[in-house]
């Protein structure tokens, strides 16, 4: 049948379905086979020939026909999976059913009345149909997921056949799918031959699998998360392919090479089916790992009666289990090296413009990296024990710098900061940041000569001073990261030192301090950074010490901050004359060490009008994101009780509550936190060094700042400073707030990836809102 004839034949079948007023029985195979037998159409064809309006019309006017269509399509998948897809006609039927279900499912999920349809029990199909036992009924969803899983390891369809005897096709139920893992890597040493047809078929099935999982998009976000029954079944022990599927997905992602042999523009001349598969594998993997905080004992009152049976007793998520149990160093090395290579791919510079393929799934890669570090602590420690962590840090900072002004990339900045917060909770991260930053990546930031710590501070400063306004909730998170690493930073550059002091200048301005009951926390964080460096890394940080001396008026102004009502009201008048904190107050004051020039011609990615954007759930405050630990002399960390941590220098969760609930006046609120400003160490430093610097300038007639820096470089404050305070580290702690944020962010990315053909576009999703910027 020619392609045009196939389209016409298929379209007639769709019209018949939409115009029939009477139910079509499931036994009328001649009618139903029109949708998949001898149908040779692409996914784009099927999406065009089955319009959204007609799917909704059948759903409302002939619901029994839509239900039977879904049942018959699943039945065909099950039968062909059981038979092993022995001929091309069967394989084409599988692809047609797969594409048709991918098209229809979102319109079933969007209607609450259909929500439990796939979890209603129906007679089993396939080889189990004739068993005649009590297990002959099962939810349609389980049959569909089982068939997809079987088909993903079907010889000569999605995997290479090891042997095919003259007796006919082997029984697919007897196949050990662990022998058919798609790619070498973790737990599998054999590299199967590359087969573009198999990759294409795998991609079609994974897209249907993602569509099944996407039922979660059509439920309103809530702090109490209801487990996704599709993911629960797929990742449970009831899926006999769980281990080879997990391994295949992970290895395909990590082994993907977008550059190949490096032939310029090869990605424009040849289709990259492995790239399509790698992206879908990555998305399927991160969604399958999305159940780690689920308490199965709490499921079901909000699920349909039919769902209770299928999900409440399912057991643990095997994908999470497998990920958390990876432990071999060679596996860690493989994963970290390949994720680092892929994250650095968009940073590649070539002489010929656009001659090298750039991946677009870096956001999903960051989600996978987050899950690896969060769920597998051995992997986290492996990442931090060598300088390889910097191969992850640099691309993350590149993405943050590149996207901070783009509203459509707010989620990307969040995930990057979250990963750095997780890493900063470990001492080794701060130590690794002292490595010189020599491999220059094109970023629109100030030029500096220094370490990776300087790069971190310069990029964070850019986000705060010129990033999008929706990034303001991340300010305390970014400063917490700097606080965590500050006791280990041996030598900040002058540029980075001045960036920190500029932030203090901005955040300590009276109008900013008084315009919000929580803004003073930012000043506390910065003061803690300065105190940590002075107390623990004074010798090498003469640039910062010199900057503190030059900006000493800032600290004196903080110490003498007015707390009377008139002064507060006068300062707030400045707030009313501006619309946001992103105004002239963020402009850096001119000094010889702050330069506006960037590292080469590279400029930040501009915001494109008309861009679609998915809304995000609000992230928890920093005191909900972290728990405070004290570092002992031997490097061990001791978790502080809440009562202890609230009395530390800058853990102010209790102060926040007091500030919001106090009724004794705004001046009393300011007086409360002003009395706790940790200025003693800095004031003592100024008391000792300012007279010394002034004297040497007068005695030697110094006008060259390099001589002052040389003097400070060899100075000491041993015995002159207060007793060093304990080092406090704020470590990320898992919580439902961030779990919900990640779910929303992850599904928002996936939704926006598939607008052509539009898998979910223009359906009534509830998990987030779609905005056009």
Layout of helices and strands, plus pairs?
Elements: H1 3-19, H2 29-32, H3 43-49, H4 52-61, H5 63-83, H6 88-109, E1 121-123, E2 137-139, H7 140-151, H8 196-213, H9 229-234, H10 242-255, H11 266-269, H12 273-288, H13 305-311, H14 318-325, H15 329-344, H16 362-375, H17 377-384, H18 389-403, H19 410-424, H20 427-432, H21 452-466, H22 475-485, H23 494-507, H24 510-514, H25 520-536, H26 542-550, H27 552-559, H28 565-576, E3 612-614, H29 622-625, E4 626-631, E5 637-639, H30 642-645, H31 653-661, H32 666-674, H33 680-700, H34 705-713, E6 727-732, H35 736-753, E7 770-772
Antiparallel strand pairs: 1-2, 3-7, 4-5, 4-6
Helix pairs in contact: 4-5, 5-6, 5-7, 6-8, 7-8, 8-12, 10-12, 12-16, 15-18, 16-17, 16-19, 18-19, 18-21, 19-22, 21-22, 21-23, 22-25, 23-25, 23-26, 26-34
